[in-house]
Amino acid sequence: MSSSRPLHPRGHGDDAIRITTAGSSPQADIARRQRRYVIAMSIRTLCFIGAAISGAAGIHWLWPLLIAGAIILPYVAVVAANAEDSRSTELPLTGGGDAQRQLGEGPGGERG
């Protein structure tokens, strides 16, 4: 059964959209950021506990390193939790064309 409706309603020149460059959902992004933050803060807690244990055990060279790690980790945790997704559209689509969607010509041949 044939129909007069075109297969591509917006025209035959539509470029493909790469799904691999699509961002994740807001819920997945928040969950990823929270997971990174909780892991870093757990390591920080372990550094404090390790510093207390090593200080009590008389390992005087280890506890300052663990305290330094516990002091630096909050900064690292915040930076890691706020890091943006690293997906990029810099790789060209196979078959040529620009990876970014662009507006076509408007009525009367004007770009718009």
UniProtKB/TrEMBL annotation:
Residues 1-27, 87-112 are annotated as: Disordered. Pfam families: DUF3099 (PF11298). The keyword DNA damage does not apply. It comes from Nocardioides simplex. It comes from the Bacteria. This is DUF3099 domain-containing protein. Keywords: Membrane, Transmembrane, Transmembrane helix. The keyword Nucleus does not apply.
